[in-house]
Amino acid sequence: MLTVIIRAIIIFVVLLVVIRMMGKRQIGEMEPFELTITLVIAELACIPMADKSVPLTFGIVSILTMYVVHQLIILLTRRSKKLQNVLSGTPVIVIDKNGIKYQALKSMNMQVYDLLQAMRTAGYFSVDEVAYAVFETNGQLSVIPYPKTKQVNEDEVALPVPVLVDGEWSPQDLKYYSLEKSFLEEALSRNGVRAEELLLVTIDDNGKMLIHPKDKKYFVVNIGGEVHYG
């Protein structure tokens, strides 16, 4: 038992030193190749800790080898922009002044819901608050918002609800907020669009409806006090 404890402590110390030498502060800041190396290191560390028949030096040498590979990749990517793009990818603009770039989302195998979640995490709840949004190579969303031109009253603050995403209605949101699908379809029809043509429709309890056609600029209409949430 004492041997297992000592082996575990040694592996822990080696891991701590290697991770510190890699210089990353948190998982969310890692590039794809760095996350891969970190996961491999974690797996290599488990083997000598769990299996006493594996010499401790095997685990330590394997971990240090992954550190050397990490440093070598860092050195090569500094010298070659093309290699860096291959290993880490490139930032992708997913929102511009026309709205959501649907093809850019598809190229990253992302859905509109994923983008909306990332926007909320960044502190933005509606597409029309954002002038530009870029997914960085580490998965973080960077946002350039439109400047606020007026003081917003407390009564004007409302949460936009995505009632239609990628041409399909969201039954759970319609039910939760007691919204009639037929009423919303009529509102869309008055604005000359159909549900299957749309990438996104959001609506808040102030009656502000954002309508975003696929591959076209979004527009906002206000249907006033017609909408009531349950």
Brief summary of the model shown:
This protein has 230 residues and is an alpha+beta fold. Helix content is 46%, strand content 18%. The protein has a five-stranded antiparallel β-sheet with strand order 6-5-7-8-9. Strands 2-1-3-4 form a four-stranded antiparallel β-sheet.
Could you list the spans in which at least 5 consecutive residues all have pLDDT below 50? 226-230
Q: How large is the radius of gyration?
A: 25 Å
Strand content: 15-25%
- If strands are numbered along the chain, what order do they take across the biggest sheet? 6-5-7-8-9
Please tally the helical runs, counting DSSP H or I stretches of 4 or more residues: 8
What does this entry look like structurally?
Residues 226-230 have low confidence and may be disordered. A 5-stranded antiparallel sheet has the order 6-5-7-8-9. A 4-stranded antiparallel sheet has the order 2-1-3-4. It is an alpha+beta fold and 230 residues long. The chain has helices at residues 2-22, 32-50, 56-79, 81-88, 102-107, 112-122, 171-176, 181-190; strands spanning 92-96, 99-100, 130-135, 141-145, 161-165, 168-169, 198-203, 208-213, 219-222. 46% of the residues lie in helices and 18% in strands. The N and C termini lie far apart (61 Å). It contains 8 helices and 9 strands.
